Each structure stands twice: as structure tokens, then as C-alpha cells.
Amino acid sequence: MLFNTGAALLDAIVLAVVAREPEGTYGYKITQEVRQVIELSESTLYPVLRRLQKDECLEVYDRECSGRTRRYYKVTSRGWAQLHLYESEWRSYSGKITGLFEGRPVKRSEA
């Protein structure tokens, strides 16, 4: 993608991906799903996951899978609230940018 992806947008994307799995999901699967939207390395993803955990937006637990332990991530109630805020902000922001591209005038209250 040509545009830079800032920390807030990365947080929003990761929360949205994790939220799709009610019981939680693991890092590799999160990486694969995020890559459907933006290019992302695992070395970029794990600091995002740690930040979201530190901010109490994600809870973490381990589960055995085929003789290995996988770390799973699940959205907390605080994470759901943050995700809803991100969704609202994204709709407003993307609507304004789309309006500019489509030549719609920007109202002063929207600027």
C-alpha cells in the first residue's frame, strides 16, 4: 500500500481481526488475516499485540495445539469499546477523504 499505516490504524485493524473470533485467535492467523488488507510482518505485529495487551484491550492465554503451545489473543470489554471508537472515527475520516476525491465540498464543521 502506498499510504503509511500509523499505530492507531494498526491497532484498529488488529482489534477488528481478533474480534472476528469470539474465543480468540493466535498470532500467525492474525498476521495472515491482516495481510489480506495491508502488508505486515510478524515483527511489526507482535509489538502491536503487546501494546494492545498492555492497554487492556486484549487478554492473552496459552493453549496446547499439536504438541505445541500457542498464544491466543481475545478482545476484552475495554478492547470492544476501543474498537467501536476506531470504527466511528474511521467512518468519519474515510467519508471526508472519499468526499474530497469525489469533488464534494467540505463543510466547515467537517474540516
TrEMBL record:
Annotated ranges, domain Transcription regulator PadR N-terminal: 14-84
Domain of life: Bacteria
Xref: SUPFAM superfamilies: Winged helix' DNA-binding domain
Pfam family, one: PadR
InterPro entries per record: Metal_resp_DNA-bind_regulator, Tscrpt_reg_PadR_N, WH-like_DNA-bd_sf, WH_DNA-bd_sf
UniProt-recorded name of the protein: PadR family transcriptional regulator
